[in-house]
Amino acid sequence: YKMKRRLGEIEQFEFEKLTDGDHLHLTIAISGWLEEPDQEKGFKEPWRTMRLSRERYCLKWEPKYLREVGSGITSLVTSGAISLATQEALKFTILQGIMSAIAWPMSVLKLGYLIDNPWGVCARRAAEVGKQLARVLVEREQGCRPVSLIGFSFGARVIFHCLKALAKMKGRLLTFIVL
């Protein structure tokens, strides 16, 4: 199960239009994680104020895994702050020795999580989505016009792998890239 999840096929890859009308220049925005439980809003919200071109799309890819990364980041920040505060408070009590004795085994247990963590799964899936995006761009699904790509976090990784694939295909179609 774990390897299938990590190496499985792309489950979702689709473009959603963010603006009305057709224009010469096209921008594709790629999110790197989702914080919103609502998938539609999660992909669109980060790009609401983007004015790079008049015709804008967002790439909706692997929402299940991107949401896991987003919730993982949120819980990491909150649990990290709570854990740090607790450790600092316990330093001044008799439990200091016990805490230092179990700190190393706890960190080893956390390493088991790395086998199938959302970060690793998204990193692998971003590479596959990047290759798929390159194929779509080379096939000129968007027409014969200039295209810009913009993305953050795993969205930037998608763009990176797209550029690598385009270089192998000798595809020269992008005008502007923001990572």
From TrEMBL:
Query: Can you list the GO cellular component terms from the UniProt entry?
Result: membrane
**Keyword Transferase among UniProt keywords:** no
Q: Which Pfam families match?
A: DUF726
Q: Does the keyword Methyltransferase apply?
A: no
Q: Which UniProt keywords apply?
A: Membrane, Transmembrane, Transmembrane helix
Q: Which domain of life is it from?
A: Eukaryota
Topologically, how does it sit relative to the membrane? Multi-pass membrane protein
Q: Where in the cell is it found?
A: Membrane
PANTHER family, per database record: TRANSMEMBRANE AND COILED-COIL DOMAIN-CONTAINING PROTEIN 4, TRANSMEMBRANE AND COILED-COIL DOMAIN-CONTAINING PROTEIN 4 TMCO4
Q: What is the name of the protein in this document?
A: Transmembrane and coiled-coil domain-containing protein 4
To which species is this protein native?
A: Nematostella vectensis (Starlet sea anemone)
